[in-house]
Amino acid sequence: MFHQHFLSAPGTDLGPLDSGERVLWRGRCAVAEYAFDEASSLPRWTLPEETDVLVTDRRVRYAYADGDTLSSGELFWLWPQHLRVQPGNRGVGRNATVTQIQLVCNGPEGSFPALVLAGGALAKVGDADRLANVLRQAIARFRVENAAEIGVAPAHSRMLSRLVIGPEFSNYQGGEGQTVTLLGFVQVPTPESAEPIYAEATYDAPGYEEAAYQEPVHQEPAYQEPAYQEPAYQEPAYEEPAYEEAAYQEPAYQEPAYQEPAYQEPAYQEPAYQEPVYQEPVYEAAPVSSMPVSTMPVSSMPISSMPVSTTPISSMPTSGQRGYGDRPGMAADAMRAEEAMRAEQDSRYAEPDLASRASSLAARVANLLSSENDDDGFSPFGGQTTNLSTYLSQRPAEDPQAYR
């Protein structure tokens, strides 16, 4: 809806200033109201450059008298949200624009009405900057001093206090302009509509009587306690369980599924090392030969020239030692080895070489005794026979060749 927020009704005089209100700036310039929420909006109303403008520490007032008609309005420092200086361009003629001071407010229903001052005493950019500095300091100081009444937060008050001593506006012709945001603003109230109110015509309804409607009366039903009835006991009827003979089903033959055995590689095991057990050799008594032993003295010569094995019996490999495993015929081989060993021992203890030497010696001695005398008729033993035992008991001759 189209509203005029900052212009009073025609012929309204704003009257004198309030008590204690101080005037900060006075001059003449053009005044207009724009709707900044509408793109390329036209001004809602305008006043010429001869309009008197008065800036105080509480508001900005303006008035223009055209004969008997007086147009006036005001903008309090509670409402402005943004203060902007827009310098004019350097063009001439119809393309030229003038320098403006824009006081943008936050209106109802998302609108942004703005009061614009331009021309007259603000034709130059420097004059507009000076008036904009006055407006910024007046608005900031008013909100800081009345923060409790208008509900300005402490953080906003500190930021507004910086605007009082902040940098001034400094623009040039054809520049981009400058904008300052003013915290702690209050929304602009909706102005009263100046449009005439038309009375709505009334029409007489035809005469008929509407049936009177009667609300049915609700009656609460009376509560009756139910009579107690003891439940009748009924003995449960016995039912014989129905016997059903199980149907015989011959088991279906299933061919066993062949499963190939899984191949498992034999695990290699390192043969365990066993320390050979030392066994003390068992010495057995040598069997005595049944051959008669000669009574001849034993010669001091070696009995036999056959070398005797120096290998101990215990050093022979057995089935329990390392390196020999169980094989067929091992027991028979061990028995044959034992019999050969016993035979060797029997041959050593029986001394067959000594017996043969004794018999050979006896034959030679008998041959000597029975031989004839030599050519000289001399007999070494005087032709007498001598007992052989006497020769056998004598010491051997010095010459060992005599007994060979």
UniProtKB/TrEMBL annotation:
Residues 307-319 have a biased composition (Low complexity). Residues 307-329, 371-404 are annotated as: Disordered. Residues 382-393 have a biased composition (Polar residues). PANTHER family: REPETITIVE PROLINE-RICH CELL WALL PROTEIN 1. Coiled coil: none annotated. This is Translation initiation factor 2. It comes from the Bacteria. The lineage of its organism: Bacteria, Bacillati, Actinomycetota, Actinomycetes, Micromonosporales.
